[in-house]
Each structure stands twice: as structure tokens, then as C-alpha cells.
Design a protein that fits this description.
The chain is mostly helical. 55% of the residues lie in helices and 7% in strands. The protein has six helices and two strands. α4 links the parallel β1 and β2.
Length: 121
């Protein structure tokens, strides 16, 4: 399914392989330090995973502490890519199964973030 979304089976397989592994311990520790600094100051932390990727690995890394707002981009980007094609939302394949966003992709990201933040109040 991912290969049909991105149009590149080899890149999709590589991306699935890469994200199914363990987190880099240094990266995970740094993400958690940022989480703790932001939440420790009484601020809210907005976490958004890459388009077309599942949110669960980010939740596993950062947990469910009060004050964390998770933004799920996977379903909305999958639907958009299925409907309008990969190139409508991405200009490249930077992550193997996703890339840097086009204007339309950035607008979808912004809407997803805005909805998640507003829903958290």
C-alpha cells in the first residue's frame, strides 16, 4: 500500500525497514529532554510526526504526559495522496515514503496542527 502511495516500492520498503527499528538512544534522550524542559516550564508541547508515518512511535518515545498535543498526519496525507497523487503533496522523497511538502502539503500540515491544538482545549 505504501509503495502505491509513493510510487516507489524500493524506497517505501527502505523507509518501513528504517522506522521499524529501535530509536537511536541519543535521539530519544534529546527528545525527552526537550519534552521535560517544555513541560517543566508549564508550556504545552505540540508533537507532529512526519506525513504518511504512524504516530505511535512518537507516542512511545515521549509518553502521554499532560500537556503533550499529538498531531496525527498519516490518515489525512494518505487520503490526499490516494485522491490527488504524491506530487500534489510532496516535491521529493526525502524520507523514502514522504518528502518535503508542496504548498498543498504545508496547508494540510497547518490544518492538522490547528485542529489538534484547538481540540486540546
Amino acid at each position: 500500500a505504501l509503495a502505491s502511495l509513493t510510487g516507489d516500492k524500493k524506497m517505501a520498503e527502505k523507509a518501513v525497514s528504517m522506522r521499524s527499528g529501535m530509536f537511536n538512544p541519543l535521539t530519544a534522550a534529546n527528545y525527552r529532554r526537550i519534552r521535560d524542559m517544555v513541560l517543566g516550564r508549564g508550556k504545552r508541547l505540540v508533537c507532529s510526526q512526519y506525513p504518511l508515518r504512524p504516530l505511535e512511535p512518537l507516542r512511545l518515545m515521549l509518553g502521554t504526559a499532560n500537556g503533550i498535543i499529538y498531531v496525527d498526519n498519516q490518515a489525512s496525507f494518505q487520503a490526499g495522496v490516494e485522491r490527488e497523487g504524491y506530487e500534489s503533496y510532496f516535491i521529493d522523497r526525502f524520507g523514502g515514503d514522504f518528502g518535503h511538502c508542496t504548498k498543498k502539503g504545508n496547508e494540510l500540515l497547518a490544518r492538522n496542527i490547528a485542529h489538534a491544538v484547538l481540540a486540546s482545549f
